[in-house]
Each structure stands twice: as structure tokens, then as C-alpha cells.
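Hi L.,

You mentioned the student needs an example of a multi-chain input paired with its predicted structure. This one should do, with 599 residues in total across all chains.
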Amino acid sequence: MSRRHPAERVRVTLGTAVVAAVVVAAAAPWLFTGSDPLLMHPSTPFAGPGGAHPLGTDEFGRDILARLVYGARASLEVSAGSVLLAGSVGTLLGVLGGYRSGVWEAVTMRSADVILCFPPILLAMLVAGFLGAGVGHLILIIGFLYMPQFSRLAFAQTLAVRQGEFVEAARAAGASTGRILARAILPNVVGPIVIQASLSAASAMLLESGLSFLGLGVLPPAPSWGLMIATARNYMFQTPYYVLWPSVVLSVTILGINTLGDALLDHLDPRRRLG
Amino acid sequence: MPMLKYTSRRIVTAVILLWVVVTLVFAFLHLLPGDPVFIILGSESGAQAPSPEQVTAVRHALGLDRPVPVQYGLWLGRLARFDLGTSLYDSTSVTVDILARLPTSLQLIAVAVALAVAAGVLLGITAARRRGTWIDVVLSVVLAGGLSIPVFVIGTLAVLVFGVELRWVPIGGFVPFTRDPAAYLRQLALPATTLAFSLLGVVGRITRGSVLEVMHQDYVRTARAKGAGEVRVLVRHVLRTALIPIVTVVGVQFGILIGGTVLVEYIFNWPGISTLLFTAIQRRDYPTVQGIVLVTSALFILINLIVDLSYAVLDPRIRYEGGA
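Structure written out for the whole complex:
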């Protein structure tokens, strides 16, 4: 007896549409715009919306719509890349730690404790500030920082199922440890991990855009939403729309990912659905 | 005495974690590929090459010309005296610099947390009591917005609307409370509200969830049956139980709160520890950066310890399980 408000269903549909649009924009930006995001038109800076530039131009006369569309790629690369890294390594460590106990458990859980001692943005600023910014470094550092979210979850899930009869049966049938982990344990761990991945992706995008906003993330002239907001802030008294576009696009994207994550959570946790 | 056992165990863990963090912060430079001095001076990022005199000066100033075990011993010895070294930029004491900025940041964080908890609890209770109605839907969108809209977007738009268009409050800066309380509060209003908004979503959602869970418990029904008023039932019975997850979530969110503080201080030019960190990174002032990371992480460990302990006070089940 799902007591979902109809508006709730509309929200989930909208969230899915937003995420789909951003993924398409990152994969095939030319479907949305015919302009080059890096092409400067020094003679027409801050052109108003309309004509050849549907959303106007920035301080170098570059097309704002094109920069927004191409900016999806940097954000998505960082959030998807870091979550894939954190999710795969974290899940592996968590499952091994939960199944093997002993040394593996100590390595998994204590390393998670230590990583969690550092506020993420500080470590990210430290690395970006002294090693250099850029998409690659962002993926590595955010992936590292987000590992505990996955290793702890996978650890707890594995502990919960490892005494199960189906695991016992597999072991009695002489299955190797690798086979037991892959065939009996992992399928029971994957659900919560996927939910965590969607929530982590949203928070990785928040972190990336914040770092880019500070000038410690994606490097110019590559288009990035956080970077665009930082630049547009300098001109927002003359052209308030310039700062508004990337702000709206970034917020709606993160909202969309979070909405999808919530919907997944509701779907997989019957208690929440009934409540 | 399960409580005592649990407390001492948690304190020992916290001390060990602190030592690991101290060691990692020390090791950071040595773990990176390349010469620490060149990393600090930024030759890796393609800037102009530092002069040999500069290299020798920095190497000597940071004691990097000594063997690593000696450096580590000196590092621990200095920390025991709360000495975080001297700034490479202006040779001031990093400890003094941090202590001068930390209270300004803590004021901002404290006011923001208070605002977020007050508003979040109120909105969460309202959403729970009107569950399934359009009020619940609207509130859940607002709370999801708090979770999703980046704090620097809120800050930027707040400056645009309230500072530039409406001119209600100044767009940035700081006046000490002792000099002019009214001006201090006007300066604090926008940054604190902005920071609070980033926490509001989490607090509101947790409150909604736990109030829903508690609302239909037997003891709440008993209280109602005894004729207790609605407000009394909510405050005395529902909220008291719902408080545990709220306390935890504020503690857990502290890392995100620090992230928000960095951005909010930057946008509103609030002279706290994050603005110090940001300028120190730009000046490649490694000792200052190192000191701030260390102090913040230590505070982080301390807050987690306090949250864990208060959690055990609020919920007796924890200390019996944890202390066994």
C-alpha cells in the first residue's frame, strides 16, 4: 500500500529526465548546441540572450549555452570517476574484511576510521593546491576520500549475510573463496552499494563544483559550472543572468541525482515505502 | 560501570586516531613523488623555477635538510608544546595565526548550526504531522533543495538579492562583536543563514523520519490517552526520542559543514580559519596549511568523540553493547 503522493512520482520522473539530459550532454554535447564553447568573440562580450547565442555570451564573447552544455562533461567525469573508484575499491575491501575478519577487517575498518578524520574539502584543497588541480587529481582524491562510505557499508552487509545458509551450502559444496564472494555474498551487497553510489555521486559533484569555484578544481579554459559561477560573480552587478544560468543548471543536476537516489532507497527499503 | 568502560575505550581510540593523523600530516610531503621543497615552491605546477637560494632557505626553514626520523621527532616535540611552526610568508607563528582566526569561524559555525537545527526540527515535525499532504511535498522539495543546492550558489545568489538588489545587509566583511554588536549581527546574518541552509536539509529529513517512526509508538499513544496536550506529547515524548539521530547527524555532517564554511567564508570575506587556509594555499605557505589541516582534523576527532559519548548518554543500549 504505497502512500506516495502523485507529486512525488512527478518529482522522480523529472529527476530521471534531468540526469538523462546531463548524461547525453556530456556524451554528445553537439546535440544541444552548435557553438564551440572555447571560441572567443572579443567584439561581442556580454551579449544578451537571443539570436546566435540563446543565453548570451560571457566576458570573452564565448557562447554561454555551449559552455553550460560542455561543462556537463567535467562534472560528470569527476563524480562518476571518483564514485567508480571509491565504490569498486571500497566494496572489495569491505567484502573481504567482512568475510575474512582478522587482518583484512583491521585494514578495512581502521583505514576507513583514519580517512574519516579528515574533512574532505581540506584534503582536496591541500592536494589540489600543492600538486595541481585538474580532473585527474580530483577523481583520485575524491575517490580516495569517499572509499570509507563504501567499505563500511559493504563490510556491514557482508557480516549480515556471511552466516547465511546459502553461504554455508556453497562452502560445503567446495566452492572457492573467490566464488563464494562473487556468487553468494556480492549479490546481497550490491543493492545498498548502488544507492550509496548515487548519493555519493551527488556529493562528489558538490565537492568538485566547490573546488572549481575556488579555482582549485577544473582548470580553465575548459568549461566547468563551478568555475563559470566564480567568474560570473565578478560581473553579476552588470549581467545577473550570467551567474544565474550555471547556478540553476548545477543545482538542478545535483537535485536530480539526489532525487533518483532517494527513489532507489524508497524502492529497495519497504519500511520507508510504507512509512 | 559500562559507561566508564565505554568512555575510556572511545577516548583511547580518539587519541590513537589523533596520533595517526599527526603522523600522516607529517608524512604527506614525504609520501609524494619528488622533492618536498620543490613541491612547496610549486615548480611542479610549471611556475618559474625557484632560485637555488630559495630552495636552500626553505629546506633549512622547514628542517628538511635533516634525516627524516629526526624531523619526525622534532615535529612531535613541537606539537607537544602546541608549536605549529612559522609561516613561510611572514615568519609569524602559525599557532598564533590560527588561534586569532579560529574563534571567528567557530562563531559562524555555531550560529549556523543553531539556526539549522531550530528550522530543521520545526520543518521536519511539520512535514511528519502533515505526511502525504501537499505541505509535506513542498517541504520535502525545500529540504531536498537544502541538500542539493551548493552552498556557494546560495551564497552568491544571497549576495545578489539581499546585498546588491535590496541592500538589506552588507555583502561581506567583519566587525568584532565587542566593537559594534549591531554591525556584527548584520555582517553575520547572510553568511550564517547561507551555511545553515546547507545543514537544514539533513536535519529536516532526519527529524521527519524519526518523528514518523516514534509517533505511533505505544508510549506516545499512552501519553495522548492520558490527555496530554499535543505540544506536550510532541516535546516530551516524540522529540526527546527523535533527538538522538539529530545529534548524531549534526556530528556526522561536521565534515560537510567545514566544507561549507570554507566556501561561505570565501564568498563573504569572513576572516576565519578558511580564509587563512585559502590565502596560505595561494602563497604556498606550507606550514600554515599543514597547521590548519591538523587543527581542523583534531577538532573533527574531538567532535566525533563528543557525539559518540552523548549518543551513549541519550541511548543506554549503546553503552551496554559497546562496553561489553
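You could point out the following to them. The mean pLDDT of chain A is 84. Chain A has eleven helices and no strands.

Best wishes,
N.
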